[in-house]
Design goal:
The protein is an all-beta fold. Helices cover about 0% and strands about 65% of the residues. The chain has a four-stranded antiparallel β-sheet, with no helix packed on it. A four-stranded antiparallel β-sheet has the order 3-2-7-6, with no helix packed on it. The radius of gyration is 14 Å and the shape is elongated.
Length: about 100
């Protein structure tokens, strides 16, 4: 099995919203723009849901001092991320894909 790694940053368009990161093709849809999208490894589908890491990059908390990120849904083809009070979110996706001769 070969490894495939995806990285990028979500630049949020709204104080609160959600976006979907698709894996093949590697793209962002929703209330955020994807910047610095990069991938290493074969451009093939993951065999099962890959490991994911979602992290804060820039926060603008509300009047009560709250900010949050939620990974709402994930599969072998996408991850849905929601937020409140966050301007930038970075992510890393890593998992196995089938070998080209499989």
């Amino acid at each position: 099995m070969a490894m495939r790694i995806l990285t990028g940053v979500l630049m949020t368009d709204e104080n609160a919203g959600e976006a979907v990161v698709t894996f093949n093709p590697h793209a962002v849809q929703g209330q955020a723009r994807g910047v610095g999208l990069a991938q290493v490894g074969p451009e093939r589908d993951y065999g099962e849901a890959p490991a994911r890491l979602v992290a804060l990059r820039e926060v603008s908390v509300d009047a009560r001092g709250h900010a949050r990120i939620d990974e709402k849904q994930a599969s072998e083809s996408m991850v849905k991320i929601s937020w409140r009070g966050v301007n930038e979110i970075s992510y890393l996706v890593i998992g196995e894909v089938a070998d080209s001769d499989a």
